[in-house]
Prior knowledge:
CATH architecture of chain A: 3-Layer(aba) Sandwich
Structural class of chain A: alpha/beta
Strand content of chain A: 5-15%
Oligomer: homodimer
Radius of gyration of chain A: 17 Å
Strand order of the largest sheet of chain A: 3-2-1-4-5
Largest sheet of chain A: 5 strands, parallel
Mean pLDDT of chain A: 89
Helix content of chain A: 25-40%
Number of domains of chain A: 1
CATH superfamily of chain A: HUPs
Amino acid sequence: MSDAVVLLSGGLDSYTAAAIARAEGFRLNALTILYGQRHAKEVDAARAVATWLGVDRHVEITVGLGAFGGSSLTTDAPVPKDRPIDPTEIPSTYVPARNTVFLALALGWAEALGAHDIFIGVNALDYSGYPDCRPEYIEAFERMANLATQAGVEGAQQLRIHTPLIRLAKSGIIRRGVELGVDYALTASCYDPGASGEPCRACDSCLLRAKGFAEAGLSDPLLARFAMKPLEEGTQ
Amino acid sequence: MSDAVVLLSGGLDSYTAAAIARAEGFRLNALTILYGQRHAKEVDAARAVATWLGVDRHVEITVGLGAFGGSSLTTDAPVPKDRPIDPTEIPSTYVPARNTVFLALALGWAEALGAHDIFIGVNALDYSGYPDCRPEYIEAFERMANLATQAGVEGAQQLRIHTPLIRLAKSGIIRRGVELGVDYALTASCYDPGASGEPCRACDSCLLRAKGFAEAGLSDPLLARFAMKPLEEGTQ
């Protein structure tokens, strides 16, 4: 059994990517990064998901990206709501270089563990237009990572960045997760949840999630947890 | 005047790189990363150097790389002493993916600032064989960085990773710094300093520093600060 480092945010995508890694036979080392996001709900979700997955180790690491500003997810700037999502425009929820910081930390842990596989749940189809979700970015990171590390110097086994969701629609991600038996009621997607963790149902992340469940013909178990009904058609 | 993000560790190299950035006309935004190194002396040095440089902003950010283990700089493992330095072998002081984490954080800040220039004081000549100091690594990081960010998507001005020291010997770095008037008594290079910050004079970093000053025909002002004499010839 080989070790893999899986980035686990507490959201739907990273959970599915980790469940795929497990189904592929990897031993899971889950990495959750507290980067200064405005709410701790997704960290609670990451812990619940890690328990469900039966990960070998779960490391939480803090890095205060809020010190740099530049994002409505790490500052007091308002999160956009009920907007049509246009992936050609980068929204204020973009956190500068977030995936680069996340993958760099995953790379550090992978190298310390002697692991050669990193999983990240990025996808470039039903997404918010973040530049660091695109396949060409991931390929460039992988190439850099192999030059950055001992493995690269020794020319031994190469590091791989696995992105099993990158070309899936949100509905396809959800279908794949359901096949693997995941419990999406454990996850937190909302950028701006209420005090009890209930989703706002208006931010990009809530809208993409609702669209995904609708297109998959499934109901979102998270809504049942909060006694909410699916959004009516045409409101998404 | 353009903004540049300069990685400032408190050591001799990053100070020189930042002084070069200043001489090239950049406004300096200094980034010091508290990554779990065993001693805080270099952070004190970074503050003194930032003051000397007259930086526009100085951000200190904490990220506990010690959680991953794998290095004698972030754990209780002993630091190698009085060894012949062989750059073909990666020593225990190597911190997995450290420069990738540092550059990723610098990239995040640069993007939030709208800066397109990052300075890092790596060098690949008088060094300890760390893979993430090599020119091919830096080039791959720069390529990835341009795909990771808004600048890359817009195809506007490209991000540049400046490595003004990468092909200099330690003596050349010191000569360049002295030309720029830097005060190397402010810096901390030692991996394992004493309680008052006095250098151990036996770790790789102390030995490379001593060799650099000797080859430059200069005396190290840090030694005078601690009333130490240069090491005798032949002991280096």
